Amino acid sequence: MKSNNPLDKKSLHSFDVPKGYFEEFPSKLQDVINSEENEITIWEKISLILRGRFTIVSSIMVALVLVILQFSDSTKPEKSINSEEAYTYLSNFEIDEYNELLLFEYMEDWSSVTNEPTEDEIIEYLMTQENIEIEI
Amino acid sequence: MEKYLSDQELLTLCQNKESQSYGFNLLVRKYQKRLYFHIRKMVLIHEDSDDLLQQTFIKAWKGIMLFRGESQLYTWLFRIASNVCIDFLNTKKKRMNISLEEVEKKYLNTLEEDPLFTGDEMEKIFHRALLTLPDKQRLVFNLKYFEELKYEEIAEITGTSVGALKASYYYAVEKIKTFIKQD
Predict the structure, then answer these.
(1) In this structure, is residue B168 part of a structural domain?
(2) Which residues in chain A have their CB less than 8 angstroms from residue B182's CB?
(3) Rounded average pLDDT over A39-67
(4) B125 in Cβ contact with B180 (< 8 Å)
(5) What residues make up the domain containing A114?
(6) Which chain B residues are Cβ-neighbours of A18 within 8 angstroms?
(7) What average pLDDT is seen over chain A?
(8) Measured distance CA(B1)–CA(B21) in Å, rounded
(9) What does the pLDDT look like over A78-116, one tens digit per residue?
């Protein structure tokens, strides 16, 4: 008796493939593998170059750190200045005549800074193009 | 009919640097059809099957030098192909972000619209019934029913115990019978 149960009728060919698919597949796969192999080779080359450079760069960095550490040791002050020594130095410091003259000139100009500007002076200052640019 | 080398002969060629390409080409020619139809029954669409078949052989190419022959060559190839299929189906489901019922419907539509499906009406019903099974159960069913592999071989491929496989296959057959009766 002929069975109507699909489980009894095993078909391995329910699906079809485009014409020539299995004939072409091995060479298509070979192309894909070759291109993947080339990618790996390029990557390996890059990583080799980078690895070489990394060694050089890291060696330079280590050398630099050593030099800096050496240099920073030699620039350390022999001893720190205490406040007593600083006071003595400032007490003994004498202002000569030329320095005094400069100080007086400076004190004369100082009045323009310490006096409050008038409203007109402020407006004049703000309206000057150069000052506007500076403010911006 | 094409004559193929034995798996041991193929393996010897593939694991020798000088004959590797030639040996692997012969291996592809020997197993491409079996692996293709195994994949095709899982993912249905030809373009996806073609892509997954390539992935399977690329993985095999990369791993063949490390293959120590602890399992049969064809069970190793089927394991790669099966894992590639399950990963693909899981990714597809996640990407589509739809329920299992909707996935099932989409599969059924794919089967209905596939111009490369050449089975008759009975086979269509059978494949529709297969699509109602969860992917891993469908995989076990396909390996047992279509590939006629032993449970021990399927256990090697799926990494599941023989007892669990027997139960899975039994329930798969029952589900298919029920579906066909209802249809």
Answers:
(1) yes
(2) none
(3) 73
(4) yes
(5) 95-135
(6) 46, 116
(7) 72
(8) 23
(9) 556 677 777 777 777 665 656 666 666 666 666 555 667
**Per residue of chain B (183 residues), what is the pLDDT tens digit?**
568 899 999 999 999 999 999 999 999 999 999 999 999 999 988 999 999 999 999 999 999 999 988 889 999 999 999 999 999 998 888 887 766 567 667 777 777 777 777 777 778 888 888 988 999 999 999 999 999 999 999 999 999 999 999 999 999 999 999 988 886
Nearest CB neighbour to B118, from listed A10, A15, A18: A15
Supply angle C-alpha B85, B119, B182, rounded to 5.
85
Q: How many domains does chain A have?
A: 2
Which of A4, A29, A39 is the best substitution to test chain B (most B C-beta atoms within 10 A)? A29
Residue A87 falls inside a structural domain: no
Range of the domain at B118: 7-182
Shortest CA distance from B125: residue in chain A: A6
Q: B123: distance to nearest CA of chain A, Å?
A: 6
Contact A16 B116 (CB under 8 A): yes
What phi, psi does B116 have (nearest 5°)?
-95, 10
Nearest CB to B117 within list A6, A7, A14: A14
Inside any domain, residue A27: yes
CATH number of the domain to which B63 belongs: 1.10.1740.10
Q: Which residues of chain A neighbour B25 with C-beta distances below 8 Å?
A: 26, 30
| The pLDDT value given to residue A37 | 79
Q: Do the Cβ atoms of A33 and B58 come within 8 Å? A: yes
Q: Provide the pLDDT for residue A85.
A: 77
The total domain count for chain B is: 1
Q: How many CA atoms lie within 13 A of B120 on its CB side?
A: 7
Instruction: With residue B43 as reference, give the H or E element that holds it.
Output: helix B20-43
Is residue A111, in this structure, part of any structural domain at all? yes
- Estimate to the nearest angstrom the gap between the alpha carbon of B104 and the chain centroid: 18
Of all residues in chain B, the one with the smallest CA distance to A15 is B117
Q: Which residue of B has its CA nearest to A3?
A: B122
Question: Which chain B residues are Cβ-neighbours of A39 within 8 angstroms?
Answer: none
Contacts (Cβ under 8 Å, ≥6 apart) of B79: B71, B156, B157, B158
d(CA B97, CA B92): 8
